[in-house]
Amino acid sequence: MANILVVDDEKEICLFLRHLLSDKGHIVTICTSRQEFDQTKNDGTFDLAFLDVRLPDGNGLEILKDLKSIQPFCKVVVMTGYSTVKTAVEAIKLGAYDFIEKPFDDIGDIEQLTERLLTDGAVPSQDHVHDLAARIGCFIGQQEEMNQLFSLAYKFAQKNVTVLIEGETGTGKEVLAHFIHEASLRADYPFIGVNCGAISEHLLESELFGHTKGSFTGAAKDRKGFFELADKGTLFLDEIGEASLTTQVKLLRVLETGEFMKVGGETVLRSKSRVVAASHVDLHNAVSKGSFREDLLYRLDVVKLTIPPLRKRVQDIPLFIEDYLRRHGFKLMFTEETLELLMSYNWPGNIRELVNVIKRAVALAEGETSIITPEHLPQKITQHAPGVLETAAAISPAVPKSTGFDSFLDQWQQEIRDMWKSEDITELQLVLDSIKKLETETIQAFIDKSLRKTVGNRKKAVEGLGITMRKLRYYLNEKK
Ligand SMILES: Nc1ncnc2c1ncn2[C@@H]1O[C@H](COP(=O)(O)OP(=O)(O)OP(=O)(O)O)[C@@H](O)[C@H]1O
C-alpha cells in the first residue's frame, strides 16, 4: 500500500486515477489546484505523485520543484497533453521520473508504471543507460551534461514522440539516434538512416516514400521506400535541414497523419515508424531564413536533444581513447603529453575527427611500439600546443581577441542606440564614423579568428576567408 498524490484540475482525471489506484489498495490524495496542493503538500509522506503540468492557478513545474524539495524520495510522473510534451523534457530534467500523455490510451501502461515505480528494484537506473550504450559501442563519458542527455534520450526512447537531435558535425547524432532506437520498444524492427543532404530531391523522395513502376525513367519496378521498410522501427533523417521545401511538405504530412504516397502512386499508405531527425544547422535560424518550414520544425521539435561539441568535454577524451582501444582490442597506451595535446586541441570535426586521429596513431605505432607519443599525432594537433596560439596572436597584435570583439559589439550597439535615442539631431558624420569603425573592427576580428584557427598559417587563412594575400596584408596594415 502506498501514498499517492494526484494533482490535476481535470476532475475526471483525478476520479479516474483515484478509482484505478485505490482499487490496487493505495491511498490516493487529490488536489485540483495549486492552492489545494499548498495546503496538502506537508500532510504525510507521498511515495508517488501524478502531476498535471498545466494548472489554472499555477505551473506544474513549480509544483514539481516544490514537491522534490520537501519530499525528495517521492517519485513524480508528469501528465501532459501533446502540446505540452516539451514541458515533460523540462520536468524530467528537474527530477520527474517519467511522463504520461493525456488522454490515457492504455490503462495497463499506468498500472505497470505505478507498479514499477513503487517497487524500487525495478526502477531503471543510470546503469541501464550505460549498459545499453556499452552494448552498442556508444560512449557516454563522465560529464554531467552527457549523462543527462543520454538519460533523457533513454526515457523518451520508450515514448511515441519525434526526437530532434542537434549538434555540430561528427558529435555523434547518428550514434545517439541508434541508441534511442535500441532503447525503444522498436528495437526488434529496422533502424534506417538517410542523409537528406547527400542525394538529389527527386531521389530522396523516391528513397523515402518509394516509387511505382514507370513513375520516372529507370523505375523498372515498384519499390518500397524507407518509411515502408522501417515498418514499426526508426527512421533517422540526418541533415533534415537540407531537404527541399517540397519534400518537407511530404514529411510534414507523414508526421501529422502517418500517411504518404509512393512517387507516381495513387494509393495512400500508412507509416508506423518513428522519426528521429538531426541537423548540424540551427533549424530555427533556417526557419527565419525561409529555407525550413516552421510547421515541420514544430512537429519535429517535440523533444530536442543537443549534443555538446567535443571541445566542451575534453576531459572525457582519455576515457574515450581507453574505451576505443579496449573495444577494438588494441594493447596500446597514450602518454600523458599526448593526451594533454589532444585535450588542448579544439576538434572542429568532433568525435569523428578524434576517431580518425586515434586510428592514424594506432596505424603508425603498429608493429613498432605500444606507446603512443606526440610523434604519432598529426601536425595540426602538435602545433596547436599552448604557445603556438600566442604566436598566432602575435602575428596581428593590433587585432582584438574574439571575446574583446564581443564586448566591442556590445559597446558599438550601445553607442548607436544612444545616438538614436538622443532628443537632439545627430550629426550624420558621427554615425558614418561609427559604422566605419564597426567595419574595420569586424574585418580585423574575423581575420584574427582565421589566423588563430589556422595557427598563423596565412595561406590557409586567405583560402578560408576568400581573399588575396595582398588584401590580407592590407587589412593587417602591412600595405605592400
Ligand atoms: N558517443 C559515441 N560513442 C562512440 N563513437 C562515437 C560517438 N559519437 C560519435 N562517435 C564516432 O564518431 C563518428 C561520427 O558519428 P555520427 O555519424 O553519429 O556523427 P554525426 O553528428 O551524425 O555527424 P554528421 O553531422 O556529419 O552527420 C561515428 O562513426 C563514431 O565512430
UniProtKB/TrEMBL annotation:
Record Gene3D superfamilies: 1.10.8.60, 3.40.50.2300, P-loop containing nucleotide triphosphate hydrolases
Domain Response regulatory: 3-117
Keyword Phosphoprotein: yes
Residues covered by the Sigma-54 factor interaction domain: 139-363
Keyword field: ATP-binding, DNA-binding, Nucleotide-binding, Phosphoprotein, Transcription, Transcription regulation
SMART domains linked: AAA (SM00382), REC (SM00448)
UniProt keyword Transcription regulation, yes or no: yes
Residue numbers of 4-aspartylphosphate PTMs: D52
The name this protein goes by in its record: Sigma-54 dependent transcriptional regulator
Phylogenetic classification of the source organism: Bacteria, Bacillati, Bacillota, Bacilli, Bacillales
